[in-house]
């Protein structure tokens, strides 16, 4: 097995952003007089994006009324984006090993660039990612293969020698579409609808520590 580059999904794989999302969404609920939401319910929805989280809070709304709430929610999140967000415990060692082994690495996320840039500016990674592909970097996003190809190109590694690790079936699909190895981060924000058949990954990681152990075995 030859893996020369490691690409990560962001929310629910590389960073635990769920607490700041939960804070922002419940602030939005309070502002619009909607019921308070349980953290665990929000956590399961994070990887589905801002619209899905807003819909969780306002299930009866559509169109402009829902979009108003989504924009408010995203602004509150932007303003409070780094209060509780951290690298997943156990993954710090893996990122240090990536730096020590000089393995090219990067991030491919569907998170919009204005949020991605603000979020990453407050995270002390052991080394800077060679590529960050956000949801609006290209005209298409995951599970389309183009963001994956772009990330591999910017890391200088052919896709077949990359692994993409993510916590949503869409991430595995994106990696497969690009001809990459794939890893399922089963500790992430898995949707309740995700069944075993949705995860045709090459590797399965029950904890962030297992990703670090995997990286330790490379090269």
From TrEMBL:
Gene3D superfamilies in the record: HAD superfamily/HAD-like, Putative phosphatase, domain 2
Keywords per UniProt: Carbohydrate metabolism, Hydrolase, Magnesium, Metal-binding
GO biological process, one term: DNA repair
Example GO molecular function: metal ion binding
InterPro entries associated with the record: HAD-like_hydrolase_sf, HAD-like_sf, HAD-SF_hydro_IA, HAD_2, HAD_sf, PGP-like_dom2
Keyword Hydrolase: yes
Any one GO cellular component localisation term in the record: cytosol
PANTHER family: PHOSPHOGLYCOLATE PHOSPHATASE
Protein name, UniProt field: Haloacid dehalogenase
Organism this protein belongs to: Hydrogenovibrio marinus
